[in-house]
Amino acid sequence: MEYPRTLRDLKAARYETLSVKDELRLNLIRKLRSREKLFPGIVGYDETVIPQLVNAILSRHNVILLGLRGQAKSRIIRQLTGLLDERIPIIAGSEVNDDPFRPISAYGRQMLSHNGDLTPIEWINRDSRFVEKLATPDVTVADIIGDVDPIKAAKGGHLLSDELTIHFGLLPRANRGIFAINELPDLAGKIQVGLFNIMQEGDVQIKGYPIRLPLDVMLVFSANPEDYTARGKIITPLKDRIGSEIMTHYPKEVATSVQITKQEAWTNRFTDPNRIVISEFIREVVEQIAFEARDDSHIDKHSGVSQRLPITVMESVVSNAERRALITGDERIVPRVADIYAAIPSITGKMELEYEGEQLGANRIAKDLIKRAAGEIFGGYFVGIDFSRAVKWFDEGNKILLADTASAEECVGLLEAVPELIETALIPFEFGRNDLGQLVAACEFVLEGLYAENKISRNEEGGYAAATKAKKDRRGMIYDDLTETGKYS
Question: What is the pLDDT of residues 429-460, one digit of tens each?
């Protein structure tokens, strides 16, 4: 498509410019009518966050997304560009995307005055109309609004008070587009004052020189609730000028969380998609770890437990299963519970602990989270199924060690010694005895579930044995078995 290259051509094409908020609104209306997906890849917000955001855009509001870390705030903000027109015209060479019909800068007005209908036009795409800044305490007015540039003054022979000497900051450069600031409370108060002044009146002072910049911009902010008191706050006049405050949240169901991790985790590592087989119960245990962590009193709830936790854990789980396959020569990579324990380093770094949690230690808490998560998912798969014969076998003094480097064939040989374990473990699943990888994963899942119910015990090496009488009596208590030194009970 050939785009008009002068103001005369633009007028001949009967092009009409819209304000950016009207543009977003109209494109959103078109997408809603055609039933298009508004925010691809955003999962779990269809009934909560997205309707609120749609209402804000239809209302032409500036928006703040308020939520804990790892709740897709930045991704949502960046996807707003999909609601902009594919291209818009600007006066060629303009730093602030001057509208050819209504320029706001001295440069744009000068170009229009000198060239008239022959004013050259450039077309910029939607991605060039998005400006994003991470708020930090060292951000200055010059960064956001602008500053006088002595070099411009010297080269052009201008007085320092001349508007042509201004080096524009990020906000004016976002004119006719979207300007996003992440972690808004970290922005110094004087910068926030500059923001609400230009939002409301279009006035700004640069080095004491007052100019008017009636910017056409949609402002979108993000913030973490803990930052309101921990590192800073949003000043009241700025907050008052933000039209909609939208609360984000973590996934409310394990199934939603599984869907997000499937989308985000790097698990498809081979050209053959059948080489990696991740059982659904393994996925659910990994997700349940995050749910358990968010409810754990030893973990700081104000900081939150990011959705990045199950994503990185799943990647580590697959990597440990891949390592085992490389050692044993197994063709297929099938993760199991032992691989989740091997992924503890991907858990500990994602949690901010309270004082009591610090005393217990991140490793101990991570192990307990895995235990509780496995127990929760185990109950959903094996409710009402009797494992008394297997438990009795352990009570008689028998033990089994399923090392995370043992091959599937080797593990099956050990598991066959446990009465009825293999047959019972297969009940909820469609695969059979010939699928050794998933068979071992299912049996180890059962053993971990029995361990979570304190019917048997587990040591550091992945060995299962009889539970002590005291632990059986304290069924359901937290951390009661985390003092094991690696030896069987």
Answer: 999 889 999 999 999 999 999 999 999 999 98
Q: Specify the pLDDT at position 51.
A: 97
Residues of the chain under the 50 pLDDT cut: 227-230, 474-478, 482-489
Q: Are 378 and 428 in contact (CB under 8 A)?
A: no
Report the amino acid identity of residue 226. E
Q: Using an 8 Å Cβ cutoff, are 414 and 402 in contact?
A: yes
% of the chain residues with pLDDT over 70: 88
Chain Cα centroid distance, residue 403? 33
Do residues 379 and 460 lie in contact, with contact meaning Cβ atoms separated by under 8 Å?
A: no
Closest of 65, 217, 74 to residue 145, by C-alpha = 217
Six token digits for residue 104: 């706001």
Q: Are strands 63-66 and 146-148 parallel, antiparallel or unpaired?
A: unpaired
Cβ(254)–Cβ(291) below 8 Å: yes
Over residues 334-356, the pLDDT tens digits come to 999 999 999 999 999 999 999 88
CATH topology of domain 7-247: Rossmann fold (3.40.50)
Specify the 3-state DSSP secondary structure of 458: strand
**Is-contact 439 448, C-beta < 8 A?**
no
Q: Percentages helix, strand, coil for the chain, rounded to the nearest 5? A: 45, 15, 40
Q: Which of 84, 158, 78 is nearest to 124 (CA)?
A: 84
- Residue 234 is encoded by which pair of tokens? 């949003």
User: In one letter, which amino acid is 125?
Assistant: N
Distances (CA, A) of 1 to 86, 87, 92, 119, 263: 12, 12, 19, 21, 35
Domain borders along the chain are: 7-247, 254-473
Condensed to tens digits (0 to 9), the pLDDT of residues 46-83 reads 999 999 999 999 999 999 999 998 899 999 999 999 99
Largest CA distance in the chain: 97
Are 93 and 8 within 8 A, CB to CB?
Answer: no
CA distance 79 to 87: 16
Candidates 389, 403, 379, 400; CA nearest to 452 is: 379
Please state, in angstroms and as integers, the Cα–Cα distance from residue 43 to each residue in 244, 263, 419, following that order: 21, 9, 43
- CA 72 – CA 255 distance, rounded (Å): 17
